[in-house]
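Case 280 in the screening queue. Each case pairs one protein sequence with one candidate compound; here the compound is prephenic acid. For every case the pipeline is the same: read the inputs, emit a complex structure as tokens, and attach any notable structural observations.

Predict complex for case 280.
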Amino acid sequence: MRAAFFGPEATFTDIAVQSVFPDARRIAYRTIPECLEAVKEKQVDMAVVPLENALEGSVNLTVDYLYHEDLPPIRAEIVVPIEQHFMVHPENVAEWRKTEKIVSHSHALAQCHKFLHREFKHAAVEQMGSTAAAAKYVSEHPELKWAAIANEMAAELYGLEIVKRSIHDYPFNHTRFIVLAYNKLEIQKAPSFQKSTIMITLPTDKAGSLHQVLSAFAWREINLSKLESRPLKTGLGNYFFMIDLNHSLDEKLVRFSLEEIRALGCTVKELGSYCRYMAE
Ligand SMILES: O=C(O)C(=O)C[C@]1(C(=O)O)C=C[C@@H](O)C=C1
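Case 280 output:
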């Protein structure tokens, strides 16, 4: 099994892949779109990308790709606990408090915003492609007084020294990663529960349409665990809605509700029914 993941090696996405697909041949891609294109064009068997972080919310790039592109279905969701650490090159350990620039993925920087504001007011902050890309860059540039925010695996792999552990601002920090594949996947781990994701576009300027959509689920007692709007990119005030259901799309009542929602003039994109797996 070839698994494309948002790399380089030792990103949180890599941890997600290794926790559920220990035998997969992991192929790192530099960006989320490159991972998704790889699975779409069948260069790999699956792609694993981040979808949502408990502190920072959705990864908009992933959500937009799911809506605008024709991709394989979501086959699994992996939830990974996120511990962000502050790390420097071994040559710069003694002077780590004098760090001049801190680099990481935008989500990771945001998860540590209070820490950075409190402890490194005067340091510059710069986004990099991923947490591991930032760690790799810092390891290759000992001459710079730079630090990376990344995980323990990245510190070990790229030979950096963790000088401050667990610097994320809130303790409950988890990220959801999704696995997209054309074929059903063999997963050895026990799942925690089944769910589905859909995307809905409402008919233009029809009063009460969102209420009607939610009613179609509510009176059938279909449990929703997420509802989020994203711009359609066709003008201000135009949105699509991403909805997670704690049910399979094969359940009769779910099928009936989607039929009703379509009859109301909405467009429904079904992204898949899948199980959640915990990385711990
Ligand atoms: O940069 C990484 O390590 C990733 O896997 C990406 C990502 C994200 O997109 O949110 C994943 C988990 C963490 O929340 C920070 C970054």
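Case 280 observations:
- The mean pLDDT is 96.
- The longest strand covers residues 267-278.
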